[in-house]
Amino acid sequence: MPTLIIGNQNYSSWSLRPWILLKHAGIAFDTRRIGLFTDTFKAEITQYSEAGKVPVYQDGGLTLWESLAICEYVAELRPELWPDEPQARAIARAVCSEMHAGFNALRNELPMNCRARNRRISITDQCRADIDRVESIWRQCREQYGSEGPWLFDRYSVADAFFAPVVLRFQAYELTLTEETHAYCQTVLADPHLQQWISAGRAESEVLAEDEAGEDP
Length: 217
Ligand SMILES: N[C@@H](CCC(=O)N[C@@H](CS)C(=O)NCC(=O)O)C(=O)O
Fold this sequence. Notes:
Glutaredoxin; Glutathione S-transferase Yfyf (Class Pi), Chain A, domain 2; 2 domains; 4-stranded mixed β-sheet; 51% helix
């Protein structure tokens, strides 16, 4: 059985991406959780990967780090996790790469936190620009490639897995968002796999001060 090594489910956005993609792929896997920001985290994770970060995926002799590479590997096993049409597939890859490489202000200022709801927060212009860019990506994908299904590219794809943590961020903080954004967020939040992840995160007892932001309403 393959194993996915993840961080705290309440906070670890990078871990959520391959976890939810594996669920949508219907691939059975074990999960091993290593608590983030603990004294033993580095010693534990470097037993699996010298990169020293979660997620890490082990499948037979393969040990794979980097969430995007893990998702690409899962999609090698289940090609339907990328869109069929080459141009749509290219755009899906572009939006995943953009998410993987950027959005630093959004990431730093709005940490993923499954327990948080509508927290009041003041954000920088850069964070607002990141939110606007996410909304624009979602609008473009839904209008051009997703009009016949609920997801960014009609059926579930790596792109939806990549943006799932952003939906949790949008749920956690009080932000001004468009109706289209709310509609896509509702689709993502109705996903039973995401609800399973949220429940596990909420059940965790650790509170990581580094990832707590905003004030409860
Ligand atoms: N680029 C990596 C980022 C992974 C990452 O930053 N993981 C965080 C947890 S969400 C981590 O392991 N942090 C612990 C550390 O850096 O010590 C990926 O896509 O997998």
